Amino acid sequence: MLSRQFVRENPDAIREALERRGIDDVGFEDLLAVDEEWRELKSRGDDLRHERNQVSNRIGELKREGNEADAEAAIERSQQLKETLQEIEARADELEADLEQRLLELPNVPREEIPTGQNERDNEEVRRHGFETARELPADVTPHYDLGEDLDVLDFERGAKVAGGGFYFLKGDGARLEHALVRFMRDLHREQGYTEVFPPIPVNTTAMTGTGQLPKFADDAFRVGARNDQPYDDDDLWLCPTAEVPVTNMYADDILLRDDLPIKHQAYTPNFRREAGEHGTETRGIARVHQFNKVELVNFVEPDDSDDRLESLVAEAEAVLRRLDLPYRVVLLCDGDLTFASAKTYDIEVWAPADDMAHGPDRGGRWLEVSSASNFEAFQARRIGLRYRPERHESAEYLHTLNASGLALPRVLIALLEYYQNEDGTVTIPETLRPYMDGQERIEGHDPVGESAVGAGKRE
RNA sequence: GCCAGGAUGGCCGAAUGGUAAGGCGCACGCCUGGAAAGCGUGUUCCCUUUGGGAUUCUGGGUUCGAAUCCCAGUCCUGGCGCCA
To answer: Is residue A281's pLDDT more than 60?
Structure first.
């Protein structure tokens, strides 16, 4: 959320920001009109209240003096004021609620320095890593969804059986690899100075609103105990769509000390997303699913430090891919591709060599976004009530929040299965992960279970 | 889930229907050779800032007037119950 003062004083900056993001449906001019009318009514209400306070005070004095007659007259005047006040304030409250709602739906202002563009094609590649020293790949790389089923480490049909499309089982070495990755990432981030938290998985409406998932993006979230199109209030629960939500909100309404900052938290959680409207894109495999694991990095910093912190945060997330020796690139998002709450975002995209994509890497395969590192500046902090006191005698001010995935598991798994696969259909486990898998060096697969495997000729 | 008690500024804490004491912390000033102590001022948010308004967990209600009375909710503490 932007501050009312900023909105009032810099309407042109906001018009430009909306233009850059390609947003024209938020009714910003109406917002300004509502604000103006609200302030007008607020001022009149304040004057009436001032008079009422004086009269009330007088009533107290008169009563103490025993002057009942004058007290009665004052009470009558007070009653009149009360009626007028109720009308004006009821209208002012409506306007303020409207104003608040409109402010909640206004996106953050993109940073000056980020590129201008329409969509992801206009993002700017910042750097690539790991391609010069890439390993020798099989002539035909098998996509992870086929290889995963061949090795019987991924099972989509049985996932759909128990939870529906978009859910899957990891089995045997697949499940072990998942846990190994989580433990490796957590260890790495602990070396980087992160304090680990394990948050609640259901989060309430207030928290979802604080980080910006609500009110605009309710369709993407899993509602607990009700359908998404039913009305909700502050206490209703949603399944964690990213650990950003519980972790960023954990200090809501707190005042932190300067000495507390920066705070660096990491959190492993499962994440749940409806991915509404995404059917038909990347439906095969585990690139886009309704439940996935992720290690999230969340930073709380002083405003002056957030620029530098964003650069370091990207490096901390990249370190995961470097240690796994997976080739990747970093892109700076253009204003048109920026998410709602962010002022500046870098994406980290790992190279998955099996399927070719349009506008993909020149050597084939596709880019998979495994992390999005964003500086939200005070946008989330203002919604959440997240402040710190710069000096002990100074008033509290909003701090800056940042976060990055470190990393999203399924897409890393895709890259591992495709990049580390061998001619014979086995998968080499990168050295970094072997300590987490009892020294195991390869995934050789398991025999499939059940009669269907016999019919398919995979078992006798 | 039931019963009882509770929630007041950065922190502690008083006020039980008449308009939020006091203390601590912190900052500045006075005082001092310097410091401590002492004294004074300041230390939430909003508005159109020589001023005004709001704010006693949240939302309703009663009243001319609510921290105070009533209703609903959230959280905390204690007791009972249930539970992996």
So the answer is: no
- Nearest residue: Cα versus C1' of B48: A43
Q: How many residues does chain A have?
A: 460
Structure confidence at residue A86 as a pLDDT band (50, 70, 90): confident
At A46, which helix (H) or strand (E)?
helix A28-65
The residues of A that are catalytic are 273, 288, 369, 372, 411
Measured CA to C1', the nucleotide nearest A46 is B53
Q: State residue A433's pLDDT score.
A: 98
* Cα gap A17→A107, rounded to integer Å: 8
This complex has an ipTM of 0.85
HEC string for A384-395: HCCEEECCCCCC
Name the nucleotide with the smallest C1'–CA separation from A96: B46
Rounded average pLDDT over A247-256 = 90
List bases in chain B with any atom under 7 Å of a protein Cβ.
10, 18-19, 25-27, 42-48, 51-54, 64-65, 73-74
| Cα–Cα distance for residue pair A398/A303, rounded to 1 Å | 8
Q: Which nucleotide is nearest to A43 (CA to C1')?
A: B47
Q: Note the pLDDT tens digit of each residue in A180-232.
A: 999 999 999 999 999 999 999 999 999 999 999 988 888 899 998 888 888 88
Q: CA A59 → C1' B53, Å?
A: 20
Domains and CATH numbers, chain A: 4-104 (1.10.287.40), 120-452 (3.30.930.10)
- Cα–chain-centroid distance for residue A156? 27
pLDDT tens-digit map of A367-408: 999 999 999 999 999 999 899 988 877 888 899 999 999 999
Footprint of strand B on the protein (CB under 7 A): A 3-5, 39-40, 42-47, 49-50, 52-57, 59-60, 63-64, 75, 78-79, 82, 235, 255, 391-393, 395-396
CA of A234 vs C1' of B71, distance in Å?
20
Interatomic distance A223 CA / B57 C1' (Å): 27
Q: CA at A16, C1' at B50: how many angstroms apart? A: 38
Q: What pTM was computed for the model? A: 0.92
Distances (CA, A) of A295 to A161, A183, A201, A242: 27, 10, 13, 9
